[in-house]
Amino acid sequence: MASVRLVALKAPYVPSSLRNLSNFLLLRTHAFTVRDFSTAMSPPSTAVIYDQYGPPDSVTRIVEFSPVELKETDVCVKMLAAPINPSDINRIEGVYPVRPQLPSVGGYEGVGEVHSLGSSVKDFSPGDWVIPSPPTSGTWQTYVVKDQSVWHKIDKGTPIEYAASITVNPLTALKMLEDFASLKAGDAIVQNGATSIVGQCIIQLARNQGIHSINIIRDRAGSDEVKEKLTKLGANQVFTESQLEVKNVKALLADDIPEPALGFNCVGGNAASLVLKFLRQGGTMVTYGGMSKKPITVSTSSFIFKDLSLRGFWLQQWMTSDKAKECRKMIDYLLSLVREGKLTYEMELTPFSDFHAAMDKALGKLGSQPKQVIKF
Amino acid sequence: MASVRLVALKAPYVPSSLRNLSNFLLLRTHAFTVRDFSTAMSPPSTAVIYDQYGPPDSVTRIVEFSPVELKETDVCVKMLAAPINPSDINRIEGVYPVRPQLPSVGGYEGVGEVHSLGSSVKDFSPGDWVIPSPPTSGTWQTYVVKDQSVWHKIDKGTPIEYAASITVNPLTALKMLEDFASLKAGDAIVQNGATSIVGQCIIQLARNQGIHSINIIRDRAGSDEVKEKLTKLGANQVFTESQLEVKNVKALLADDIPEPALGFNCVGGNAASLVLKFLRQGGTMVTYGGMSKKPITVSTSSFIFKDLSLRGFWLQQWMTSDKAKECRKMIDYLLSLVREGKLTYEMELTPFSDFHAAMDKALGKLGSQPKQVIKF
What we know:
Distance between the termini of chain A: 25 Å
Number of domains of chain A: 2
Mean pLDDT of chain A: 90
InterPro entries (chains A, B): ADH-like_C (IPR013149), ADH-like_N (IPR013154), ER (IPR020843), GroES-like_sf (IPR011032), Mito_Enoyl-ACP_Reductase (IPR051034), NAD(P)-bd_dom_sf (IPR036291)
CATH architecture of the largest domain in chain A: Alpha-Beta Complex
GO cellular component, one term (chains A, B): mitochondrion
CATH class of the largest domain in chain A: Alpha Beta
Strand content of chain A: 15-25%
Helix content of chain A: 25-40%
Largest interface: A-B, 29 and 29 residues
Oligomer: homodimer
Catalytic activity (chains A, B): a 2,3-saturated acyl-[ACP] + NADP(+) = a (2E)-enoyl-[ACP] + NADPH + H(+)
EC number (chains A, B): 1.3.1.104
CATH superfamily of the largest domain in chain A: Medium-chain alcohol dehydrogenases, catalytic domain
Pfam families (chains A, B): ADH_N, ADH_zinc_N
């Protein structure tokens, strides 16, 4: 029998992502009255929660949740690592289109080790490594209890920081490369924001498929080093925005690089216009971010005579549950690339005890920093 | 034997759309030396030509072409009527993306009566009404000789002004309604530039299919009369741009009208943004014109979170020869709607002898005027 420890909380709730308030109260009643002594219980869980939207460095706090009872099909996972993604920050700020129900545990992806199982669970064993797939909110805590259908077993040979962060950024890159054009070896893509993690993944995934990448970065001190770094990842051409202030950007294409059929935009404004300029007749630009906070401006003739299509991509919308199978297959492929050294990006593992320091770095308070991954 | 009359031309050429210069010279030689006396010849043709790009009222002139010899599979058509479309004007101005080879005969669509046939033509008889389908340049002349594959026989019960103008505008409307979304009765579309001929066709074609139309017009004197006119055609709702300066345009939708999945833009600027505002999650806006000469500006979140697609449509690009069959089927459908009184738009038939007056009207020199259709 699992030990039951009721921990004093500043507010008497369990966030919806773990158990909602009414269930929690029921559980407490249940625990002390009609308890089934054979029922497995989770350990208590230490979590990063927020009970109002606002700046993540002020509205988040660490609390401890009491153990919860595992239902027949539940799996209790001891979290190993979970990243702080920009979208996690937006969710806490309340500016994400899907606002989490408050109070909420932070985090949306991560990796953990199976700790204990509901009575009918057959497909997992304690010690297995799993990720929530599709991801679900609430990964910034030491123990997560979710139905077995949530979890996807992965190869334990994967570095935990990659296992923890494989969905939100790399899967976005892979899905966007597959969904909007039929690319084959020798084709080309163009993207702005090439130094972002999605951008770096696009470069490497394209290279793996023999697809050329044309990359646009903002003008900055040290842009030569950035170009070198992206080139090492497999970028075929890298331009700063100011280098593209020419009449015909296509004249800058290397001889072996065709006009790209597909472009990716995570910046907006002028950087989006530059992607459009590179696209070939009938090409598609996919917007997945707007770092400059500027809109996208397009001429009428781009649509009519150049026949461009402008689309958008949002991983969370695609990853509805009926896509779980496809999603997991792609995750397995991405993790295999990681293990083969064909997909890399910079991250920093920070102990959970230093969560607020990691959050400060993720918020950019200390200048440009590697992606922060919390290690539990 | 057809009589041969060589007419003095200011310049010794036949435009490419009829016969190119070298062929013409060959023909002259042929005609007077090795002539096959059984070969059918066209009558001479009076044509509107231009030998430089520029303002249509100054660069066009009327010339007479000498007869041409009909090849085995040629059909000689006596033109009955041909419209002056805005794209004809753009072609003459040299601002159209596909610039006609100079010198060129004006016009791109029209209707005519079969005059005479090449020796192997079986599918046409003199007196048949035909349209070039897909259209080809050079319809502003009294006789057009083209291969039989160019011509599509139509029902002679059709008013000639509609037969002459059925492709460029109505087919654009029909094709755009069919190609970019699967609409069914009860669905809705939104469009700006609703008073354009394409706009009027969209209203009527939508109504015929039980599809609601939400229409945006520019603010103007007499907008109430315009609204009334469009409503009579079948428009469900008509708004001026200024009426849509509200926080939530969708609150203006009538109770029985769902958020539109498809929008059409032929204006650009603010009028395009208004179309985007009406669109439902996952909707598509198709741009087919840019009357305001302003670009289209779109927010990042419209792409990512509202999942909008922006596309373009250009009839000329679609109507490549392998689409001829589909194109003709749609033309037949449109002409049947015309004959049933279900598709109407305002036109004025002007005699060919008044071509320059018709062109002045088409150029807007006399204010708003009905579409000009030349009657030969």
